[in-house]
Design a protein that fits this description.
heterodimer; A: 260 residues; alpha/beta; four-stranded antiparallel sheet; 7 helices; B: 779 residues; six-stranded mixed β-barrel; six-stranded mixed beta barrel; binds adenosine-5'-triphosphate; binds magnesium ion
Chain lengths: 260, 779
């Protein structure tokens, strides 16, 4: 089942001599559950494409339908509503609210959509690896931790699709990998569709599909690392290892109790 | 766009401050010149001797040994003027000056001639305007002995009546009071006296000797004049004259105008300072904000070797950039036709004072301009210092804002994230919040303070002039006429009460108060006058010493209290009385029972208060027996007229305060938005609708409005108390009564003004560029 269907999308900035075709007649279909990495040189239109899918930007021409329904990209109120219902957005610079704790940041989005669920928020924070840090403020956390909060926040209202523009662009490579792994792991479990922009080709191994953009046109559409057998094995292995770790932990705890 | 608006707001407030400052101070100076010129032109007397009617020579002999004095005796009498207009015919309280040469306390000619002969009168310009008199008009008058038809031959102003208020009231009223200037001998003869009868002598001494101000009891500003005055009193006593000698502080109109001007002069630097403090604080928080948003650039500059001093200089210049244009605009407005000229003309038009020349004073403008810039610049120092002390590492490492304080978190942790965010972000910058509250309080010093003052005025006057008074008319007469008037009243009035009105002073204090001897002293509506007893109780009749009431102002100024036994002088007599109660009255008043008081003065009554049934009124017969007639209706309409004028003047003061408060709130809002647009845009991207953000902003501003309103009310009250005690003088005592309704109005004003700025915030949010934010650096 397709979730995103773009037909003939163009986004033109300026006119006459200064005209820039950021997107040039793009057709794109993304199926539900796909993890899409968007690659391309600087200025190729990646952000523009993402923003249109997020209903943050209005294309100059073309049609956008989401799960079979046309998205009205001319109406600010409807665009907001669409984002609230369907999109989880992760920023490159985290954009956490400095006055709110990790938990409050997470619940803020739930509150906006009127679906307050503290239990789920806590669960998400645990799943992104922030158990115990729920009451920290953004300034009291590292970049990686902040981006994890941002992920929990984006997930907290159970959106259908997650979008991230260079969401690891501001993190070192090791942290990038951890953060992205966390995101992908949760999204796969929840069956969520993901589209993330990246400059780092090595990160395409976390995608089921890799799109190549250049000069506003999609010039490549490949299968990503995740959909390969090795990729799948890797995830399974990881699950096993983490399961084993958990069991080992339990055994150690038990041993502690017995000895102590 | 946003910072342009903010610059505009700051410049506008500085301009408003300077404009107001120029207007007030130039007005103060122009007004003193107007009075000085006018008194010089008309040769206002330095001393006035007054006594009961007696031969002219009794007065002139006092000048025999002073060849350098210019002395002119005069006959001044109370009277009435008949006025008929389309809607009513009435007798108007009047005052007649029988003048000799008009060289001392002379007249300023507006139209016609200044030398009335028999059957002729010069009318004061105020009355000519208020009652529409023209040269050649005939008026019917009473001067204590039957009626006379007089022809108006001139219209003039007198230095004694620039503040055109009838005796017994403080309120100028052009259509409720007639002052006329006649030939002294002619006035004496129509009043039934010998033509050479006089009761006053005006003395002009060489130069303009300073006189002793009435409110500075411990300092004598005019020693030379005081000596002459006391010598004259001694001489009078030795000649068996009982009367009095006053300097200019004892002449009602010059003294009231002086006090009024003094108030204006004292308050103008104060108002200017308050306005400048607000401007300065506004600039200070703007610079702090600027420093904050520049912190990265500062860090970079410091890293590449800029010194703290280099950075500081830059920020120190900002107040000048904002201040100089503001000050220049303010001064230009101040000297423009809508500046001090408008103010001075409005003011003198209100008092009906002629010869108004509005000048501008470069020295004053320079002082205000430089002073303003200097004061404003001080406010740039702190943020500039902070900028210079920023260390590169502090800034570059601090990628995110500080978390809110623990207490804040505790208080708000149980709230949903939206409201909790609203409250925490309000307190995110406590020093700015504090500055906002201080600024709001300062603006309310001006607006709330005057509002409370005005409300209190109104309340005081309504109470003392209307609610406490149950008579329709009051008349004063010679004690010898009292019997005749009483028998008239028995036939022609529904009720009446005889009374004695006189004056006296504390034996150790020269300030004069009114003494009443009343039939009934009550605190309910069962008599002609209801006393509002604020402390103590109603006196008991026939005690020794006699028991009396005194008014609040007297109690406060003379430091007298309930159950004190005090000594008063009345003429040459000294009397001991016991104070049993303190009452609220407009005038400084002491109240006896009439029988107690009549045994002191030696006669029964010189006044009467009357109530009338439908169709009853004072007729011409009884009028000719009285000297002063006051009808409550006229008194109130005159008062309401003044109140309307007063309100007009006050409104402009409110406006200044209101404009400032709105500008402050607006500035706070813009700061708030500038600082948080990234955060707000993030929320928008995450699906917050404009309405969701509106709620957050509204909560924040409701909170600022509420706290600001409370702070504003508190400072308004403090200000009002300060103003009340500063304005209170012997003549006019202002009790401090806080009108809760006005307090509520001040609170609501700030609250609503604060909320009213949020639509602008929404407009800004609507215009916010979300795409810009998703890829921007911050947090
Ligand atoms: N607001 C704008 N006004 C004019 N041109 C714009 C605007 N935003 C983007 N563009 C242009 O549109 C083109 C596509 O921009 P876009 O931001 O989508 O590129 P990108 O692939 O995300 O680049 P990067 O990897 O550097 O983030 C670029 O040429 C850019 O200059
Ligand atoms: Mg981009």
């Amino acid at each position: 089942m397709s979730i995103v269907e773009l037909k003939g999308i163009s986004r033109i900035y300026g006119d006459g001599d200064t005209e820039v075709r950021a997107l040039d007649n793009v057709d794109l279909t993304i199926k539900s559950g796909e993890i899409v990495a968007l690659l391309g040189p600087s200025g190729s239109g990646k952000t523009t494409l993402l923003n249109i899918i997020a209903a943050l930007d209005t294309p100059t021409a073309g049609n956008y339908s989401f799960i079979g329904n046309d998205v009205d990209l001319g109406n600010v109120g409807k665009m907001t509503d669409f984002r609230k219902k369907n999109i989880g957005y992760i920023f490159q610079f985290f954009n956490l609210v400095g006055d709110l704790t990790a938990l409050e940041n997470t619940m803020l989005v739930q509150d906006l959509s009127g679906k307050r669920d503290k239990k789920y928020a806590l669960e998400l924070l645990e799943r992104v690896g922030l158990k115990g840090l729920e009451d920290r403020f953004p300034s009291q956390m590292s970049g990686g931790q902040r981006q994890r909060v941002a992920i929990a926040r984006a997930l907290s209202s159970r959106p259908k699709m997650m979008l991230g523009d260079e969401l690891t662009g501001n993190l070192d490579s090791e942290t990038s990998i951890q953060v992205l792994e966390t995101l992908i792991e949760i999204c796969r479990k929840e069956g969520m569709t993901v589209l993330f922009v990246t400059h780092d080709r090595s990160l395409t191994k976390y995608a089921t599909r890799v799109l190549q953009l250049e000069s506003g046109k999609i010039i490549g559409d490949e299968i990503g690392g995740l959909s390969t057998i090795s990729g799948q094995v890797e995830t399974v292995a990881k699950d096993v290892i983490s399961g084993a770790k958990k069991i080992a932990g339990k055994i150690l705890e038990f041993a502690d109790e017995v000895i102590g | 766009m946003r910072s342009k608006l903010r610059v505009f707001t700051v410049v506008a407030i500085v301009a408003l401050a300077t404009y107001t400052g120029v207007m007030l101070s130039e007005h103060g100076r122009n007004a003193s010149y107007v009075y000085e010129d006018f008194y010089a032109e008309t040769n206002l007397s330095d001393l006035i001797v007054s006594d009961v009617e007696q031969p002219r020579s009794n007065f002139t002999r006092l000048c025999d040994s002073h060849s350098d004095w210019n002395c002119e005796s005069r006959l001044t009498l109370q009277g009435q003027t008949y006025h008929s207009s389309t809607d009513e015919n009435k007798w108007i309280q009047s005052l007649w000056h029988g003048m000799e040469h008009g060289e001392v306390s002379g007249l300023y000619l507006i139209e016609g001639s200044l030398t009335p002969g028999d059957g002729e009168i010069v009318i004061d310009a105020h009355a000519a305007e208020g009652l529409n008199y023209k040269i050649g008009d005939q008026i019917r008058t009473i001067a204590g002995n039957g009626t006379n038809e007089l022809t108006i031959i001139g219209i003039a102003n007198s230095p004694m009546h620039l503040w055109y208020a009838a005796e017994g009231t403080l309120f100028p009223s052009n259509d409720g009071y007639v002052v006329g200037y006649l030939d002294a001998e002619y006035l004496a003869s129509i009043a039934g006296f010998d033509p050479l009868t006089r009761n006053e002598m005006h003395i002009d001494m060489p130069g303009t000797p300073s006189f002793d101000l009435s409110e500075t009891l411990d300092v004598d500003e005019g020693e030379e004049l005081t000596i002459s005055r006391l010598e004259l009193v001694d001489e009078m006593r030795s000649l068996d004259m009982e009367g009095d000698v006053v300097d200019r502080s004892g002449m009602t109109s010059p003294e009231l105008l002086r006090i009024d001007l003094e108030g204006a002069k004292k308050s103008s630097p104060f108002i200017l300072t308050v306005l400048l403090l607000v401007s300065g604080l506004m600039i200070a928080i703007s610079i702090s904000r600027l420093v904050k948003s520049h912190s990265r650039e500062i860090a970079v500059l410091r890293t590449i070797g800029a010194s703290g001093k280099d950075i500081m200089t830059g920020y120190l210049l900002i107040p000048l950039f904002l201040g100089i244009p503001g000050v220049v605009i303010g001064i230009l407005l101040g000297v423009s036709p809508i500046g001090s000229q408008l103010m001075t003309e409005f003011y003198f038009d209100f008092f009906g004072i002629p010869v108004v020349i509005v000048r501008h004073y470069p020295d004053l403008l320079l002082k205000i301009g430089l002073g303003s810039i200097a004061l404003i610049s001080l406010f740039g120092i702190r943020p500039a210092l902070r900028a210079s002390r920023l260390q590169p590492l502090d800034i570059l490492n601090r990628t995110s804002q500080k978390p809110p304080s623990r207490i804040m978190v505790k208080i708000t942790s149980s709230l949903p994230p939206g409201p909790s965010l609203a409250i925490r972000s309000t307190f995110r910058n406590p020093s700015r919040l504090f500055a906002t509250l201080v600024m709001l309080s300062l603006s309310m010093v001006i607006m709330g303070g005057t509002m409370m003052m005005t409300a209190s005025f109104e309340e005081l006057f309504n109470e003392t002039m209307d609610e406490q008074e149950n008579w329709d008319s009051q008349a004063y007469m010679w004690p010898t006429n009292a019997g005749e008037i009483e028998s008239w009243a028995q036939q022609n009035a529904s009720d009446y009460e005889l009374l004695i009105r006189s004056s006296g002073n504390a034996t150790d204090d020269p300030r004069v108060f009114t003494i009443y001897g009343l039939e009934n002293i009550v605190s309910d509506e069962s008599a002609m006058h209801r006393f509002n007893v604020v402390k103590g109780k109603i006196p008991v009749i026939g005690q020794n010493p006699p028991q009396v009431l005194i008014d609040e102002g007297m109690a406060s100024e003379l430091d007298w209290d309930v159950s004190d036994r005090v000594k008063i002088s009345q003429g040459s007599a000294e009397i001991e009385v016991e104070v049993t109660g303190i009452v609220r009255e407009l005038e400084r008043t002491m109240v006896f029972y009439r029988t107690d008081y009549s045994s002191i003065v030696g006669w029964d009554a010189n006044g009467i208060r009357l109530t009338f049934d439908e169709g009853q009124q004072l007729d011409d017969e009884v009028r000719s027996l009285t000297s002063v007639v006051i009808t409550k209706k006229d008194l109130l309409s005159g008062f309401n007229e003044v109140l309307k004028q007063q309100e007009k003047a006050m409104k402009s003061t409110y406006m200044i305060g209101a404009i400032m408060a709105v500008a402050i709130l607006f500035n706070t809002l813009m700061m708030n938005l500038a600082e948080r647009d990234n955060e707000l845009a993030t929320l928008r991207v995450l699906g917050a609708s404009i309405k969701d953000l509106a709620i957050i902003l509204t909560i924040e501003h409701a909170f600022i409005g509420l706290v600001g309103g409370i702070a504003g009310v508190a400072t308004s009250i403090l200000m009002f108390q300060g103003m009340a005690s500063a304005f209170s003088t012997w003549q006019f005592f202002m009790p401090v009564t806080i009108d809760q309704f006005v307090a509520l109005k001040v609170l609501l004003f700030i609250f609503i003004a604060s909320l009213a700025t949020t639509p602008f915030g929404m407009w800004r949010i609507r215009k916010m560029d979300l795409l810009d934010v998703v890829s921007r650096h911050q947090n």
